[in-house]
Amino acid sequence: MPQHNAHRRRPESISHVDAKEAVDLATAQPENVFLFAPNLIGYTRVILAAFSLHYMSYHPVACTITYSISCLLDAVDGQVARARGETSKFGAVLDMVTDRCTTSCLLCYLAIAYPTWAILFQFLIALDFSSHYMHMYSSLATGSASHKKVTSDVSRILWLYYNDARTLFLVCAGNELFFVALYVAKWTTAPVPVDLSWISLPYVGHFLANLTYAEAVACLTGPVCLLKNIINVVQLWKASKILVGVDLAERAEARRIKAERRR
């Protein structure tokens, strides 16, 4: 892409507020963003997640219920924010941080529960954090109003993921459900009431003959988890390219200014 086109397409930042001015505004609080309804839902999610972590090692029912409600509320806060006109940068970051932390804590437990797969869970944590951090930073660097505002010419995959509410919900819910199913599978042995012993595939036949409800859910949602992490890889790669592009544009601008000063 020519340099002048890349520079023209780069949007202006929606706001330039000095850090001290921002702190003073938050202290004076002409409008209490901390108490916006969607942010109150966000605090509720944090509290429920904390309870789920407390129960995780000894009370699977309480853990599963509190964790699931915390995740389901993730689909509510954004709708409330838009309906009440209470969208905020604080709320968006609170939402993302809560998502990353709750999932990572569950993955830490799964790494202990399934030590053979610990390295995979550690990789998933690293990928989740790095891809979202890079994506958020690239959004800020290009002046985007939200990390969810992705155009199809940047990435069609990310555009479909972030701009279709149903796709976003189903992928995120399926991903979380997969991890929750793995957690529940360590606590339950009740088999599904279907005789699958007739399946004689190597390794698979014996597994299906003793399949529990939780394992069945994990099998169904596993492909969704795979898709979510493919999206994370795409997000990480696209964010890296955007940041490199911003670097190149800024270096070119610095050289232009330097050349003009020499005239």
TrEMBL record:
Entry-linked Gene3D superfamilies: 1.20.120.1760
Alphabetical UniProt keywords: Lipid biosynthesis, Lipid metabolism, Magnesium, Manganese, Membrane, Metal-binding, Phospholipid biosynthesis, Phospholipid metabolism, Transferase, Transmembrane, Transmembrane helix
A Pfam family this chain is assigned to: CDP-OH_P_transf
Superkingdom: Eukaryota
Single annotated GO MF: CDP-diacylglycerol-inositol 3-phosphatidyltransferase activity
InterPro entries, sorted: CDP-OH_P_trans, CDP-OH_PTrfase_TM_dom, CDP_ALCOHOL_P_TRANSF_CS, CDP_diag_ino_3_P_euk
Cellular compartment(s): Membrane
UniProt EC number: 2.7.8.11
Keyword S-adenosyl-L-methionine part of the UniProt annotation: no
TM region positions: 106-127, 167-185
Main location: membrane
Membership in a protein family: Belongs to the CDP-alcohol phosphatidyltransferase class-I family.
Annotated protein name in UniProt: CDP-diacylglycerol--inositol 3-phosphatidyltransferase
